[in-house]
Fold each of these.
Amino acid sequence: MGITKSEIFNRQQNRLATVLKALAHPARIAILQHIIKAEACICNDLVEELGLAQATISQHLRELKNAGIIKGSIEGTRVCYCIDEKVWVQISNEFSGFFASFTPVKNCC
Amino acid sequence: MGITKSEIFNRQQNRLATVLKALAHPARIAILQHIIKAEACICNDLVEELGLAQATISQHLRELKNAGIIKGSIEGTRVCYCIDEKVWVQISNEFSGFFASFTPVKNCC
DNA sequence: AGTATACATCGCAATATTACGATTAATTTA
DNA sequence: TAAATTAATCGTAATATTGCGATGTATACT
């Protein structure tokens, strides 16, 4: 099949999985780290920084943007990307909530 | 191509991406939530709980196991799965570190 | 021994992802 | 206006993922 059966899972599970998928690629991790490090925004620098083709970087940026993690604003011929603070905090909280939901048990394995 | 160029990213980026990928599916999120909720371990219950075929659940469990997130111990004809506490904490810390690395800036977008 | 139970694995079909060259669109500079 | 710059999109090839039926394997029950 190859198609995820989203309808059998709840909204939270699908949402979490979607965000995780957006983050689940080394190039996209690297892109986010660079955006964070550069403090300000980025664009074509990433192509030189990462050593991937421009089309590939653009595709990764689109995925991050679709997930709402980053946002871009047009500045002349360039596009300035940066972290969407609101979403970042929200995701961060969802994640800590998820990880905090587990508390070690002794009676198993 | 369809193949990720892992060699151009560092160990941390690849590691983070791998773990994220293992978590990035609603079925695997649901499996983890069920294991956590049931406190003890699980096995065939997941097939009835989630409504996916046994082969499919088994495949998802293998991915979680490969990522080190869960571990299973054989108990007769059954296999008891549970969260690997050590790895869970480690991942949790890596994630909070990653999210904490961003601090809001004003001069952009 | 023979049957039942619980999982893992194989093989397949449908679909998604990754990467890139080529092209297009918009803006800036000469 | 022409050329240059920047980035999005299209099309395509290679590969990965998702899901399942069928089959294999190991242990438990009778």
Amino acid sequence: MNIGHASEKSNLPAKTIRYYEEIHLIKPGRAENGYRDYSIQDVHRLRFLQRARSLGFTIDECRQLLSLYEDDERSSADVKRIANSKLAEIGEKIRELRSLEATLKHLVSHCNGDDRPECPIIDDLAGNNDA
Amino acid sequence: MNIGHASEKSNLPAKTIRYYEEIHLIKPGRAENGYRDYSIQDVHRLRFLQRARSLGFTIDECRQLLSLYEDDERSSADVKRIANSKLAEIGEKIRELRSLEATLKHLVSHCNGDDRPECPIIDDLAGNNDA
DNA sequence: TAAACACCTTACCATGACTGGAAGGTCAAG
DNA sequence: CTTGACCTTCCAGTCATGGTAAGGTGTTTA
């Protein structure tokens, strides 16, 4: 199967698929004309990678997950550990963003938003924390 | 004031300060020995940038905010508009992360996490959505 | 049969916002 | 005089692609 077809099946741009080969995540065969030739197994791997990436796993985590995916003897604890650490990261990121949101909302709510220059948002950024 | 001192006062790494100069966010003077020489005003700008970046504004947004900061005739509406658009972005990002978190939590909760190979997380990534 | 067009190849540059390191100049203290 | 803490510029790397160029291949159509 050519890369275009594999791209459709996996929901990954061809560019990305070639990049995954470059960093040794997959190694498709080659046809006589030099075109990459993807097997059904390869497409499974690509779909796996697409899903894992869209869940926020980094390429390195995907590499770990993929090797667990291909290992019939894996323990589910190994997989769960990776997922839990990613969950912790996501939770932390959410907390940070919510704190940012609160701060900005507070500033915005105190800004008149008219054509006068007084602006508590700028004042805060400038370090004048009068509020 | 040398860059090391400016770095302490602004809470920005010296590397970052030099980078900000490279992209024309600030332009400190130079001492006779060629060292950068930061004024109090420069440090105010750096602190402003540090705060704005930590609130999630991009460099380009910081550039806008900085020019508003330096413009006594600015309208607070201009500032509020930028802040509101950033707020919308942050909200969207939070929604995405919460959705990721929910999906992952669901998967993790169904995974035994023992030394057997059965793993609903891997199954899901592989595209077997039995759950 | 030939041209048009879709697809494939490699190779290189760009992104955002830094961070790290090499190679070297400057300056104060011991 | 030398050590060490600073400072300088320049070059390369990060992450996960995206863009573009220059060219080879394969199928369809005039």
Amino acid sequence: MLNLLLVEDNIDLASGVIDYFSLENIRCDYANNGVSGLNLITENAYQVIILDLGLPQMDGLTLCRNIREQGIDTPVIMLTARDALADKIKGFDAGADDYLVKPFDMDELVVRVRTLSRRRSGQMKSLTIGKLKLNLLDKTVYCDDQLLKLSPTGLKILTLLMSNSPNAVSRNTLIERIWGDASPDSNSLKVHIHHLRKQLDLVQQSELLHTIKGHGFAFRLDQPHE
Amino acid sequence: MLNLLLVEDNIDLASGVIDYFSLENIRCDYANNGVSGLNLITENAYQVIILDLGLPQMDGLTLCRNIREQGIDTPVIMLTARDALADKIKGFDAGADDYLVKPFDMDELVVRVRTLSRRRSGQMKSLTIGKLKLNLLDKTVYCDDQLLKLSPTGLKILTLLMSNSPNAVSRNTLIERIWGDASPDSNSLKVHIHHLRKQLDLVQQSELLHTIKGHGFAFRLDQPHE
DNA sequence: TGCGAAGGTTAAGGTTGGGTTAATATTTTT
DNA sequence: AAAAATATTAACCCAACCTTAACCTTCGCA
């Protein structure tokens, strides 16, 4: 079953699209602005992303360029108003794979979605560091052949850390990207890290998760010691 | 030729800065509030952005966070009043690259602008001096293959010194940039420098850290000649 | 030669960031 | 609705870290 993301600030349009998709048996996540769209994209594996060009907080082109720079090559369909098209079309080397001028025909959109998803299906998306392999599509984490059991939050944290490896991720970044600005008691992160480490311990991989005091955490092979 | 943006609500200060910049052959756009600043930023490519912390409509921190969320990584220098500094300094991971306490010396501002513009939009990921390599992203310092173990403050000091190399950094600058105005006993800096030297000694690199008597410290290869 | 200023060294607390655990609350699944 | 899985909170611990204070060294200069 297809799993899409729609990033669109017009709620009426969005709900129409989503309803139509559900009739076609297509799952569709939804974000009404660029920033939460970006968060969803980095934390989930979509087959196709549908982006409105004009978005609050972060416009579609910027968002698209942004995710491409992160190495995410999920197919992107850009939605744009007819009059905005002319001067924007050249910008499509930002990395969009297709575009559609509003107002568009729903069937047309579905066709393009299916085409794009077919084009890149079977493409493996995973992160591997040390013996640890995180599969972004099915959200599984293996060490050799052993499956780790992680909570949703634990998985998000691990995904963030692994996709930034070997760089450090600050506590603030982590909190912001996982909880938004409605951050809970700062202890929560500690506890999640602790749970994560316990799971990693089960497969003797917990030394991959390094604490950078005064900053945050990093996921990488080498040991910061002496 | 450098092309900057200054966002500052105090018009007298702003015009002073702009005049001084023009003498230095630096172009500088100007906005007197956060919103028009944001508009200019999204529409133009600046080498450096100078932001006042307290702005009408949208304060500097918010603006900074906002543009970072849009994926704009133009270097930002934050201007702040001395008394506002202490409680704000921790918020600087909003994405500012540097800050300056008002009132500041114009030459100081020019130096920082030039430094930041040189290091290509914060894309500089590591600093290397002698055999020492400081990686800004993963917060590690290596000499050859040996990892140095530094405290958070030690790392900050080293970062400041290395990023200003081969220039000297004054004690006052060091203290101001690391502790804000809530500076501790002046001895603290001495002790931190001492710890730093001990760590550098472990890899025979302590002669990189030079004392400039009556001024501060410098991090560079050659000896400061008499 | 002796004094003061600037910097360096050392060791003793005090503080705190991060870790741990367990109880409680929330959400999801059944 | 009960049970199970997750998430959050609170209380506590500890080692690393920071600061302080007292003392030491060096150097310029009266």
Amino acid sequence: MSGDREAGEADAARGTTSAASTARPLRRDAELNRRRILQAGREVFAARGLQATLNDVAHHAGLGVGTVYRKFPDKQALAEAVFGEELEEIAAMAGEARDTNDAFGALADFLEKALARAAHNRGLRELMRQGTVEGAGLTRARQAITAHCEHLLARARTEGVLRDGVTEADLAPIAAMMDAVMALPAEQPSQPWRRYLVIVLDGLRAQPGQAELPGL
Amino acid sequence: MSGDREAGEADAARGTTSAASTARPLRRDAELNRRRILQAGREVFAARGLQATLNDVAHHAGLGVGTVYRKFPDKQALAEAVFGEELEEIAAMAGEARDTNDAFGALADFLEKALARAAHNRGLRELMRQGTVEGAGLTRARQAITAHCEHLLARARTEGVLRDGVTEADLAPIAAMMDAVMALPAEQPSQPWRRYLVIVLDGLRAQPGQAELPGL
DNA sequence: CCACATGTGGATATCAAATATCCGCTTACC
DNA sequence: GGTAAGCGGATATTTGATATCCACATGTGG
């Protein structure tokens, strides 16, 4: 938590680049409220998904709607700020996995960790599903994740553990599949997606006499 | 508002096979229109999903909205009639598979055929996803499908090809996963779900030294 | 301590989209 | 030909989210 990072965040949220730094500092209480809103956004979007209203967020933060609309012109902007951070963290996980020994295992671990996070975050899942929310930060983080995964897959292929024809392009569909399981009406507080992740990962392993994969 | 309606007249769920006893026969043109509406419903729901309006259906059938609302009190009722038939047909497929020799193969074939149908029918997919539309016909067909699949799985288990711990309860999640892939923004007119069905089915096969499945 | 720029609350106007009704007119049927 | 049955589709109704506005409160610098 450096002062640098906070300043950067504030700029990004206001949609200004650092070059156009004519921005006056916020009044102290206003800055506090800004942070409250971001936190409330994180919690509300995670719990109720992207269709939560800014009114919901405001109420959750203990503030009026007007205040929220003053800091973030619309839901897009808030979502962008909130999920930008969220995706950066996932990109960091992928980065860590990148240079672990057992590439397939590392990939499996990364997927498990990232999906566990998604499991608790309905908004994040919706974000992945339909690319409605765009923004420079999000795109950058997504690209980083993709790059790290490509690297992992290449290494797994070298190690001979990866089924023929599996590529980075398979990861989004796999995430989508796990998401679908998470969205299923849960009867108990269990985590059935872990079961299906195991099944799918086993299907991605190279096996003797295994059928050719149909094209993407 | 209390019941001044003719009882037989209001028998909206006419798709039900048995009960049409007291109903006066429809005028010839009216009966024709009824059929037109069902057909239009099938096509429109398949193409645009359940959120298509009855206005859409009416227009597609070349009829006025009023006519549609006369035959089916609301969208629920029409959807129930349309998808009742649809599900019966899938149940029939499952029934056929039931007594084929190679049980695992038969199950795989059934899934492939049923999913291929779902792939062309957005409404049907939405119906499976969120159990919003209920009705006697639907429930009955669903139960038939479940029963047939249980039978198939039991036999596959006997034959020793089925991974330990796989049950009928896994099929709905698998369908949900394939649905998720189908819902992905398609870049080409390809059928990527087939690829992932292969992967998942391979993960459901018994293999030496394979990990225990996490519970449902 | 004051003046005033900055920030706040939340009632409410606006917008959008689907649903379902109503009733004057048309058509089948006997 | 008379009458009940059926039809069309403009439109009232409902629902819910979004975003604004401005009287009032509060921090800040002098």
